[in-house]
Each structure stands twice: as C-alpha cells, then as structure tokens.
Structures
1.
Amino acid sequence: MNRSPRRRVLAATLSTAAAVLVAGSAVLLSAGNANAATTLGASAAATGRYFGTAVAAYKLSDTVYSTILDREFDMVTPENEMKWDATEPSQNSFSYTSADQIVSHAQAHSQRVRGHALAWHSQQPGWVSSLSGTALRSAMVNHITNVATHYKGKIYSWDVVNEAFADGTSGARRSSNLQNTGNDWIEVAFQTARAADPAAKLCYNDYNTDGVNAKSTAVYNMVKDFKARGIPIDCVGFQSHINSGSPYTTDYQANLQRFADLGVDVQITELDIAGSGSAQATTYANVVKSCLAVTRCNGLTVWGIRDSDSWRASDTPLLFDSSGNKKAAYDSALAALNGGGTSTTSPTTPTTAPTTAPTTAPTTTPPTGSAGCTATVTLNQWTGGFVATVKITAGSAKINGWTTGVTLPSGAAVTNSWNATASGSSGTVSFTNVSYNGSVNAGASTEFGFQGTGVGPSATPTCTAR
Ligand code: G3I
C-alpha cells in the first residue's frame, strides 16, 4: 500500500508599507473589481481564480469551438478522455492519445488542466467489471499510479474519486464494485494519487452535494475524518448540475464555506444550469458570486461550451448557444465575476445577481505614501519539489501593479508559474503582475503561483507596489 509523502504547509507574511493587513479579518474586501476584464478567464484570474470548461478532444478541430475555448477559458477538464475506460481499455495497457491532445492544447494556450477522474464506479472498461476483491483493489492502485504518473506535473487538480456517495438521505456510500473492495478504497486512492503526483491538488468530486443536505453532509464527514487522520485530500469538487430536480439553493455558499472551514479548497467542477433567459442568467450569477465569496473557492468549470456540446443539450444549460453566441447567462456570469471580490459577509446569502458589470472604477486618488502591498506564501512541499501559492494584498490604497521578490533556498529552482511573469529561476526570483491582475483595490487580494524543484521558500517575500 502506498504512503503519502509528508506535506508541509508554511506561511510567511511581510508588509512593505504601513499597509493595513486584512487577511483573515471580517471585512468586506471589495465591492467591485476595478480591473474588470472582458473574458471569463481573465475576469476570474483578476480575483485569483480560474474559469474552466469541459473539453472533448474530437471537437478541438471545430474552429468555432476552439476559438471560444481559447478566448474565454483558462482551465480545461477532459470530459471523457481521462476516464478509466479511455485510459486503460485493457488491463495494464494504457492509452493516452486523446487526453494528451487536450493537455497539449491546454499547454499551448496557457490553460491549466483538471484531471477527471481516476476512480469511479461508472465508465469503467469491461475488464474491470469481472474483477473483485484484492484483484480489483490492485487494479485500481495500478491504474491511479500509471495515469497520475503519466500526467505528473501537468495537472492542477485531480478528481481522484468521483461520485462515491449514494443519493437520498441515507448518507451511505454508493454500492459499487470499488466499494465492495473495502471501505478504505477512497483513502487508498488518495494516498496512491499523492505518491504519484505530489504537486496536484487531490479532490473528491460529487453531484447533488450543492447545498447542505444528507449527501453533502456525508461527504463533509468523510473529509473531516480524512483531515483528522492525515489522509491526503486538498479539495472538494461540487459538480453543480443544476435543474428543477436539483435546484440552486440559498445555502449553496454556506455549504462551500463549511467544507473550506475543514481546511480544503473547494471548486465548482461541472456547472450547467437548465433553463434560459433571465432565470438561468440569475442562477449563473448566484453560483459565481457564491464561489467569489468563499476565499478557498479556487474557480469554476462549466460542463461544456455551447448548448449543443452539453450532455444535456435539450436543457440548453451552458453559456453559449449552439451557434457559439454569448447568452444572457454568459453576460451575467461575466458581470458577477467583474463585480466580485472577497466577501466575508454572512455565508447564507441568497442574492439577486447584478445584471450589468460595474462601469466605473474608483475615482479617488490614493493618498500619497499609503500604497503598498503584502505578500503571503503558502507551500505544498514534498521531497524534491513544491508548489507555492502567493497572495498579494494591497494596503490602504489601490495599487496599479506589483512585483514580489521570493528568495529560494540554495538548489531550488522555479520550473513554471501562472498568473505572474517570473524573472530568473533561482536565488531571488521576481514575479510581476500580468495584464489582468496588476490593479488591486485597497485591502483586496490577488493570487499567483509557481512550481519548483528542491526546497520551497521559507523567507518572507518582498512586495513592491506601483
Ligand atoms: O464515443 C462514443 C461514440 O463512439 C459512440 O458512437 C457514441 C454512441 O452513444 O457514444 C460515444 O461515447 C459517449 C461519450 O459520452 C462521448 O460522447 C458515451 O456513450 C456516453 O455515455 C458518454 O457520456 C458521458 C457521461 O459522463 C458518461 O457517464 C458524457 O459525455 C459526460 O459529459 C458525462 O460526464 C459526467 C462526469 O464525468 C461526471 N459527473 C456527471 C457528468 C454528466 O453525466
């Protein structure tokens, strides 16, 4: 059985000005994003988040499809190509052609990748159905090890286990061949994934868990238990397939927040909302705003691009119509992203969505000398490498750009970064904002990240504002 490597989380904070340090305080950080952008990905990035979509490899040659994909989205999830039936059609014989095509496309367009899904009762290849007991358990471990190793270093987060809980009020595990191998199959899956790719965030992903209900509480209790016992879990995915049978509820944000309070990130992973017009648009905005209001909500992924790409096409649940035109839901989601910020107001927020983006940036001039920023680093460290997430927080005045200097220990090197431009790769590395995240309102924050080899930084970074 695999053991997870030791994982250290370090934090360091430095203030370079007489800035007001707001992290963790119960204040409304920003009412609007002065750096409102015009695409979903850029607008989400300005809040330190991503906006992704499910992608089908065979559609990449459709230019309407790929044009929207590359214009709007900065995260992709292979819709079917990384599933067990696609990647291991016969035992111990792996097939990555279609999934590799999506990963290559993503890398060529500065998009990150959510891996989906390593262990799931559905979309298993036929040979798996004939296994049980230790043979099936070993096959699962071998599958996870091979697939996560193949994509090591290329995956932002993995849906390690998908849909393992039953619907309804029982709070029980779903009965499945994997469950029949023993109740510890989920933790073994997470330990195996961590050993294979320590840089990827490891998520549990499910549907009908989008409010406080018996199923989401069962997942909550599992995550709480995993955290208590040191089982490596970093995030929980909320699929959010929303329709009349599974509606958006006013405790959506509170549900995300209670998971975040356990010490995991949360992600909206397969969003689609049945309907049309203003009702659909309002629900999209509500979901976006719920994510923005939860600091540990990393981002949102919609489950397809055009309505015609959806697994539920007749519900017209996506942001673009079948011709690729933006729908009201698109405008509403974008406006919500641009009006977003970080709020620590009441977690039970049923809100009415704004239907237009803020049109004016703050017009007050910051008092001379009060600008400044702080930088906080959080590390996911393992033997031989690390991922650093750096949070830049503006002081008591709006800033229009930032540069942070992060000093790496001897032997460490930056291998890639996102949402910032790096100068240098070892010693003290400077990271400067990119076009969409330089402008940060007073007290608001933005995040960027980098991956490296060796030991991650423990010294406090500098932060210089413009
Ligand atoms: O590729 C074959 C094609 O060769 C064949 O002609 C055709 C005939 O039906 O089937 C094609 O495969 C289909 C595949 O989608 C690709 O389009 C499968 O039958 C079909 O079952 C499969 O459906 C996928 C479904 O998962 C399977 O469970 C959907 O695309 C995909 O959107 C959906 O995604 C799931 C998430 O993984 C987990 N959460 C729920 C979500 C929605 O069901």
Note: The chain has a mean pLDDT of 86.
2.
Amino acid sequence: MYLRLRPLICFVLLVATACSSSKRLPPLENLPVDKSATTETVALYHNLKKLVSKGIMFGHQDDPAYGVGWKYEEGRSDVKDITGDYPAVMGFELGHLEIDHPHNLDSVPFDRMKSFIRQHYARGGVNTISWHLRNPLTGKTAWDPAPGTVASILPGGQKHDIYKMGLDKVASFLSDLKGSKGEMIPIIFRPFHELNGNWFWWGKAHCTPQEFKALWHFTVHYLRNEKGLHHLLYAFNTDRFTTEEEYLERYPGDAYVDVIGFDIYQRGNTPEHNAQFIKETGYMFSTITKLAKEKDKIAALTEFGFNSVPNPAWFNEVLWPAMKDYPISFALAWRNAGHKGASGEYEFYVPYKGSKGEKDFKTFYEKERTLFLADIAGESLYGPAKGK
Ligand code: BMA
C-alpha cells in the first residue's frame, strides 16, 4: 500500500514544500527600496520592523572611536564604560571622503572606521552612516549654503561630475564593508539629513522640493543601479518640524525611502525647556510613527542630544518619557567629541564615566525597553525574521 501511494505522497510533499518556501519569500511590497537587496539587508529590514515591539535601540555616533578624554583605545566606548555594554546602533560619518582625505571631518581615519563597522556587525549590531559632503559648487564645507548648489550637481549641472566622483568614493568605501563570509554588511545610509533646516547647502532655502527630490532619486539610482550596491537601507530625515505637510514637503517617495526620521537637540535647561522638548518631540514621534505605519517603513530618531547633558537626569526624566510610547526603531545620540581643539568648546551627548549623568544613564540602560547590544545580539538581525 505504502509503495503504491509513495509517488502521490512525494507529489504532495513537493507541492507543500514549494508552497511553504514561496511563503517565506517576502512579497515585493515588503522589500526595501532596493528590490535586489542582499539577503542580510532584507533580513535587517524585516527584523527592524519586528524589533519595535521589544523596544527602542540605543545608538551612538563614533562610539568606539573616541569619548571624553580618550581616543582609539581598543574595545573602549563611553557607553560601555558605564553600562558594560555597547550601543545597539553605531553611527559613522563620511564627510571628507569625497576630497580624498584619509580621515573624516571629525578626524576618524576611514580605515579604522571600516574596522569599527565590521566589528560591530560581527557582534550583531547595526551600523548607520551619514555624509556631511562638502559643497561641490564652492569647495567649502557642508555648512556653506551657496544658492544653486543642488541644481549644479543634478544631471546636466556644471558640477554633476564632481558629485558623481564623490559618490564613486562613497561606493568604494561601502563596497569594502564585508562580513566574515564575504557577505556585504548592511548599512542604513543617511545622506542629506536635516533637510528642512537652512544650515547645509541641501537645506530648504537653497533648493526647491523638486530639486531636492531629484537629487535623492539620482543618488539612490546611482548607488544601486550604476554602482551595484545592494546592502543599503535609505534613511530620510528632517530636523524639527511642526506639521506633517512640512515633514513630507521634500519626501522623495515611498519607492526611495526605508527609514523615516528626524533629528532633535534640546537647548535650555529649565523645566519649561524639558516640557517643551517632550511636547514637540511627542508630536514629531506621533507623526513619523503614523507615517511609518501607513507607508510600511521604519521610524527612527536619527540624531538627538542635549549637549554636555547639563541635566544629569535628562535620559530618564526627559528623553525616555518623550519617546517611550512610540514604535521607534532606534535613537542615535550624537558624538562624545570632548574638547574640540583650540576652540576649547566641549561637546558630548552621552554621559561618560565620572560625569554627573552616569547614574541616570545606568538606570536608562537597565530599562526593559531600552535595547543595547546585549539585548539585540541574540535576535540575529541579519538572519530570517523570527516570529510572525
Ligand atoms: C556636528 C558637530 C561637529 C561635527 C559635525 C559632523 O553636529 O558634532 O563637531 O563636525 O556634527 O559630524
């Protein structure tokens, strides 16, 4: 009997396997901007969406490179000095790669940056990269808002080739980011951030929405289709905004964006400033998480901070109440630069060991829904998505 039924059983099994494996393939609308993204990149995209039910990942710019009072000490991090753990997300910056410098505008050598990214990926962490690209029209810094810069680098513009050369360098840096099996390391790429402010040459007052969108579209096409990079998730982020219309004015379209976010810094240390921060960010979180849900994207606080953390309880009393109820994937604190050269200026956004915010930050770390590396390493973010 079994022998006679065997071909039928085999056929049924075959159909069942084919169906179940095709079920595992994500439908096209569930893919990131890059429909040919690598397996690890698609996995990260899906897993980031799932992970919001567990909590918010904590991120820190340049975390393993330097902190307040130290530079390039193997395995060190201001976050780890306090908590014993690394941030879940690490941010890095490519400004000055386009002018062939060996280190970025904040003095981080690009070869070290690559190792930091590889190490963090190997630990199961997430990497995001920003780019304060110098002004291609004037040759000055990213903060040189010369009118017409965006127009000049679009296809047909007089500086288009210069911009493409910059992208070629970015592409070459990104293609060198490989894991131990030769797979490409997924990166959340975050160009042209704070685009509704006026301090960068790509800012609101210096180009039309159409020009900004055209720049974004060209950039995605060039990296993905011309340079063949398939390990990027694209992050769009404004600065502070007050209406959904303002947020979306320069949004390049669902086909070009994976992560939607905003940057916010607190300035002023009074109870009124705290209340204002919570109120304003509350509105912005509700807007981006609503949009993320409608558009099936990932919402994130792409940069934040209160320089020098003058309120030692800021992380628990202000930041956490502001964001805890929203499905946000990650929140990236800006860099602990410490003293900045001759200017004597002081800059840090995460308490460091011995600073007055240390205890509060430890409590923030211990919260169930703040996710640091140890909380996410077991999630295998680069493997098949778990659960439903
Ligand atoms: C700013 C400051 C600068 C830095 C720039 C790019 O917010 O931290 O010192 O050069 O970001 O990283």
Note: The CA atoms of residues 38 and 386 lie 18 Å apart.
